[in-house]
Design brief:
Strand order of the largest sheet: 6-5-14
Distance between the termini: 23 Å
Number of domains: 2
Shape: elongated
Number of strands: 18
Number of helices: 2
Order of helices and strands: HEEEEEEEEEEEEEEEEEEH
Strand content: 25-35%
Largest sheet: 3 strands, antiparallel
């Protein structure tokens, strides 16, 4: 592969990755607790003696915004929103920022799909008719039985999305006071749909430009071959 063709191909691949990531951000602009992804780019060193050349562009990773999403006050006592860089721990070993919880038929605090929400002493369970109270520091209490534990909130330095608004990663401790819990509210997505649309247009144009460069390089190579073939 010629040097100019490879440069255009690597640029097109990076632009395509950007399109995929930004499209997903825009699609999740209304997903509770969604964290916006950002592609990181670099100039990779090549071999100066090779036909590829000394360097080429590449998309080399994805990072995630730690900014809080919009706070949506809805007054539902089982709905909880986090402010700060933390995640709710769930009984299946995953984590989430989506605090649209509910009580199941047994009185357990669970996610929309029925996975139990954890405290430092295990799942939260209320008696029938008991009201739930959650303080800003995550202390959970029932209106009849008092304190039931403190919500297990962790940091995820190496966290990655696992689908269904869940995250996986190695949990870390949250610095005291760095995260607060708001009862009766949900966290919206932190993706900016307007910026995402602009980035989609930019990435699309760059991808098209790289495609044209690849086509031009291929056309030139074919012409050169015809000339050399006499």
């Amino acid at each position: 592969m010629s040097r100019d063709l490879y440069a255009a191909f690597s640029g097109a691949s990076a632009a395509w990755r950007q399109l995929e990531v930004v499209s997903n951000n825009v699609a999740n602009a209304n997903t509770a607790g969604f964290r916006e992804a950002r592609v990181t780019f670099s100039l990779a060193a090549g071999d100066p003696q090779s036909p590829i050349g000394a360097a080429f562009a590449q998309a080399d990773g994805i990072g995630y915004s730690r900014a809080d999403g919009a706070l949506i006050q809805d007054g539902v006592s089982t709905h909880l929103a986090l402010r700060g860089d933390g995640f709710f721990a769930l009984a299946d070993g995953t984590y989430t920022r989506d605090g649209a919880f509910r009580l199941d038929e047994k009185g357990a605090l669970v996610t929309a799909d029925g996975t139990a929400v954890l405290t430092d002493s295990g799942p939260v369970t209320l008696e029938p008719g008991e009201r739930l109270g959650v303080s800003v520091d995550g202390l959970v209490a029932g209106s009849r039985n008092g304190e039931l534990g403190r919500l297990k909130i962790v940091s995820l330095p190496d966290g990655a999305p696992a689908g269904s608004n869940r995250w996986t990663g190695t949990p870390g401790n949250v610095v005291e006071g760095a995260v607060t819990v708001i009862q009766g509210a949900r966290e919206g997505s932190n993706a900016d749909p307007l910026r995402g649309m602009v980035e989609l247009v930019e990435a699309s144009r760059f991808f098209e430009a790289q495609q044209k460069a690849m086509q031009a390089s291929d056309d030139m190579r074919q012409r050169l071959n015809r000339i050399q073939g006499g």
